[in-house]
Amino acid sequence: MGRLDNKVAIISGAGKGQGAFEAALFASEGAKVVLADLDIESCESNALDIVKNKGIASAVHLDVTSSESWINCIKFTMEKYQSLDILVNNAGIYSKVPIEEASDEEFDLIMSVNLKGVFLGTKYAIPEMRHSGGGSIINISSTAGLVGNQGGGAYGASKGGVRLFTKFTAIQHASDNIRANSVHPGPIDTDMIADNLSTPEGRQNSISRIPLGRIGTIEDVALGVLFLASDESSYMTGSELVIDGGITAQ
Ligand code: NAD
């Protein structure tokens, strides 16, 4: 028995990093997975790897900032698997440009991908989840959605928005048996923060802020996301799962 048997999941940003790992983990637990990203080639290659391991997966192009693209992604999923039970709003972009130096364009782009992308995915998934008898929406926020730090501004605003948008989704759709929870990773070793970790000093600087004394892995986050996707978390909605090695406990 898999922990996600008979469930259909869409994961945005599944071309690489956390989303790609979550797709493989979900498939190994019995889910039928749709890998969605701007980078369709990587999604296709990741889906092929899953199928080679006897999982069920497909790839679709998705720009999370576009309604049209989301409508296409959900239609693709319904035609392929006739259900939608799990949505992981994982796609995101990062910037640590300080507030005074950030441009209007950069602010708008970050809000569009990280926050509007979550709104659109949620909006278009809900009717199909309701039709499927309920579902679980997992929104990937960040510790930067909980507390401030020296870099960025738009990024933190977008992730803070994701945190609260998740609670509105939880309240408005509890009666549809649709749950929504946010996940708040600390630094996770992916391309997103490769610049910060590229030198021994940069890595040490990041580690020095983390009580558990190490950078997080994609598996650390994916195991939390799997729990929220599964029925094991059936009494959880509107909550925040912090996976940060203790950073925000300080
Ligand atoms: P990553 O850069 O490895 O992967 C991000 C993926 O999102 C890429 O495949 C990219 O193509 C996709 N993407 C970007 N814009 C998109 C768009 N408009 N439409 C569709 N897909 C798009 O990063 P990651 O570390 O795997 O990040 C996953 C999530 O975790 C993000 O929401 C990120 O903000 C969040 N997060 C990351 C860290 C970290 O330290 N890596 C920490 C906290 C939160």
**Total DSSP E strands:** 7
Question: In which range does the helix fraction lie?
Answer: 40-55%
Bound molecules: nicotinamide-adenine-dinucleotide
DSSP helical segment count: 8
The H-and-E topology, N to C, reads as EHEHEHEHEHEHHHE
The second-level CATH architecture is: 3-Layer(aba) Sandwich
User: Which value, in Å, is the CA radius of gyration?
Assistant: 17 Å
- The name of the CATH topology is Rossmann fold
What best-fitting shape do the alpha-carbon axes yield? Answer: globular
Q: How many structural domains in the coordinates?
A: 1
The major β-sheet equals: 7 strands, parallel
Whole-number mean pLDDT: 98
Strand content: 15-25%
In the CATH scheme, the class would be: Alpha Beta
User: Unreliable segments (pLDDT under 50, ≥5 consecutive)?
Assistant: none
What is the compact description of this entry?
The protein is α/β, with parallel strands linked by helices and 250 residues long. It has helices at residues 17-28, 40-52, 67-81, 104-131, 154-173, 194-197, 200-207, 218-229; strands spanning 8-12, 32-37, 56-61, 86-89, 135-140, 178-185, 240-243. Helix 1 runs parallel beside helix 2.
